[in-house]
Inverse folding.
């Protein structure tokens, strides 16, 4: 299987055989992803957000090697945390195959395993005073740190990705020998997808019989406000099949920092009120980036990443003198593909108003940058950037 669109068109029995073979070598994972579960999973092959199925059946050489390493990491982390009940606790979480819950479960498992390796005692799903459960508790000496892991995303981003995936999947069935890029306007509605793809196909059929100077662009509809712009990037050789090389929503999705603050606040509410609390944020989808997180936490345009520290001067932020004091730090975590696997780049923001502080050494490590409150001057907060 080369991509998610080929998976969606594949035979369920074929997918089941590939998935079973991939998981067979992992003693723990094959108990979680047993035959009965895999049989259910492949029935959802047309769900373009089924990340777990993609990892299980993708078989082009590079992605297959990456997928095997991906499952090796999960197996090793589950094994490391077996005494903490990792199999029982993570089995239902790792069976959530769609992007957001699946990515959150993977990140939660990785962070718990990381702190176990650092010499902390780990408790999975610790009970909080309000009766709810946290993600995990890391204890060392007399220090108890409660962690909550959140996959943060824009709702609009998920809708945009669904439209992009559907257009790309439908176009992958066509035979016109062109590579195209698509720019989808924000007024585009998903119900328009079929009509738009048919229009693109008819236009490309016309262009097959003509000589075009490329790149060449056209829009739909031809009159009135366009809802999509199509760029023909190049013509392929005879016998080659066309494909979508890139798809974006015009101008991207605008950051809504109030929305981000609400999402982050929901995570803060799941921390223990009397112990240090750390919120791990992993972004997903269009428009959620490092600077959006900074603006939500620290105030709009709050941090200067150069060598000179920048004063924080905005009031509407998560880190405030009289709120969210249970939140000791926020870790912004971004996955990046490197060689045969993924690494997580982490940016740690220490809360200057936290009830309980933690030292930078608590978070130091490879691919880690930290922002630490350096001083107070007439009530104004300064941050010092360190890399450790």
């Amino acid at each position: 299987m080369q991509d998610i669109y080929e998976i969606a068109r594949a035979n369920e029995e074929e997918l089941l055989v590939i998935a079973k073979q991939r998981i067979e070598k992992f003693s723990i994972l094959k108990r979680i992803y047993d035959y009965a579960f895999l049989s259910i999973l492949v029935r959802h092959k047309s769900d373009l957000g089924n990340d777990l199925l993609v990892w299980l059946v993708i078989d082009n050489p590079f992605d297959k090697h990456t997928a095997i390493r991906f499952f090796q990491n999960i197996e090793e982390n589950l094994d490391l945390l077996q005494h903490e009940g990792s199999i029982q606790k993570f089995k239902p979480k790792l069976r959530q195959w769609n992007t957001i819950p699946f990515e959150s479960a993977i990140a939660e498992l990785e962070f718990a395993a990381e702190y176990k390796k650092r010499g902390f005692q780990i408790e999975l799903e610790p009970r909080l005073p309000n009766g709810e459960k946290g993600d995990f508790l890391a204890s060392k000496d007399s220090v108890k740190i409660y962690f909550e892991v959140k996959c943060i995303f824009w709702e609009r981003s998920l809708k945009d990705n669904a439209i992009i995936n559907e257009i790309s999947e439908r176009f992958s069935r066509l035979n016109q020998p062109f590579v195209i890029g698509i720019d989808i306007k924000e007024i585009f509605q998903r119900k328009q997808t079929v009509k738009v793809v048919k229009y693109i196909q008819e236009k490309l059929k016309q262009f097959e019989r003509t000589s075009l100077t490329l790149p060449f662009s056209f829009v739909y509809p031809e009159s009135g406000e366009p809802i999509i712009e199509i760029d023909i990037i190049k013509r392929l050789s005879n016998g080659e099949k066309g494909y979508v090389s890139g798809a974006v929503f015009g101008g991207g999705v605008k950051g809504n920092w109030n929305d981000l603050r609400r999402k982050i606040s929901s995570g803060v509410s799941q921390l223990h009120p009397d112990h240090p609390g750390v919120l791990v944020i992993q972004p997903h989808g269009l428009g959620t980036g490092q600077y959006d997180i900074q603006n939500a936490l620290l105030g709009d345009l709050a941090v200067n990443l150069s060598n000179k520290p920048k004063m924080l001067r905005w009031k509407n932020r998560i880190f405030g003198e009289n709120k969210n004091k249970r939140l000791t730090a926020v870790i912004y975590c971004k996955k990046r593909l490197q060689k045969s696997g993924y690494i997580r780049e982490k940016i740690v923001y220490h809360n200057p108003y936290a009830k309980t502080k933690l030292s930078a050494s608590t978070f130091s490590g490879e691919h880690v940058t930290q922002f630490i409150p350096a001083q107070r001057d007439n009530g104004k907060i300064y941050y010092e950037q360190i890399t450790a």
Remarks:
- The mean pLDDT is 83.
- DSSP finds twelve helices and twelve strands in the chain.
